[in-house]
Amino acid sequence: MTTALQRFSTLAALRQALSDRQLSATELAQEALASVRAHDNLNAFVHVDADLTLAQARQADAMLAAGTAGPLTGVPIAHKDVFVTQGWRSTAGSNILKNYVSPFDATVVSRLLAAGAVSLGKLNCDEFAMGSGNEHSAHGPARNPWDLTAVPGGSSGGSAGAVAARLVMAATGTDTGGSVRQPAALCGVSGIKPTYGAVSRYGMIAYGSSLDQAGPLAVHASDLVELLDVMSGFDPRDATSAETCNGQANAPGRIRADFVQFSSQYAASGAQPLKGLRIGVPREYFGDGLSSQVGAAIEAALTQFEALGAQRVEISLPHTRLSIPAYYVIAPAEASSNLSRYDGVRYGHRSDAYTNLADMTSRSRAEGFGAEVQRRILVGTYVLSHGYYDAYYLQAQRVRRMIANDFQAVLTQQCDVIMGPVTPTVAKPMGADADDPTAEMLADIYTLSLNLAGLPGMSIPCGFAAGASGRALPIGLQIIGNYFDEGRLLAVAHQYQQVTDWHQRIAGQE
Ligand code: GLN
Question: Domains of the chain, with CATH numbers?
Answer without folding.
Answer: 4-275+416-504 (3.90.1300.10)
